Amino acid sequence: MTADTIVNPRTPVAPRRKGVNLEKWGWLFMRGSGVLLVVLIFGHLFVNLMLGKGVLGLDFAFVAGKYATPFWQWWDVIMLWLALIHGTNGMRTIVNDYVTHNGPRRVLIWALWLVAAFLILLGTLVVFTFDPCIPPVPDALAGICPA
Question: What is the domain-level CATH number for residue 30?
Fold first, then answer.
């Protein structure tokens, strides 16, 4: 091939690797989770800010009432999981684009996923173990919590 020959753009630069293409699945996850997050976040905002008393109705009793039903627990947990994984995957892409050395890149990516896993675990525990009746009980919950 001479210097004045243009290579066909569809010619593979390197042989294709066998196995799962994680970049492709990460790309597909970002698109799917993005669409689902739009629905979850706008549903969350609509229920919390538009229904009832709006912003004035947001207090501890409102959250306790929402987390008393499994539907809202799962809604918020799915939103939490998707948002954290989506954001971490986006940060991983940025690290891959701008960090040129393999050592620091690996350290940063591991740190991102460890922090995301910790926040997912902590947030899930908070949602599913939320107990509004731990003393002192607010006046708004006095009728709900056993004495």
Answer: 1.20.1300.10
User: What is the rounded CA–CA span in Å between residue 139 and residue 141?
Assistant: 5
Domain span including residue 111: 23-141
> Distance (Å, rounded) from C-alpha 121 to C-alpha 47?
25
User: Does residue 147 form part of some domain?
Assistant: no
Nearest residue to 125 via CA among 67, 85, 71, 86: 67
Two structure tokens written together for 44? 């969350």
User: Which pLDDT tens digit goes with each residue over 74-84?
Assistant: 999 999 999 99
**Calpha distance 89→113 (Å, rounded):** 9
Q: Which pLDDT score is estimated for 54?
A: 78
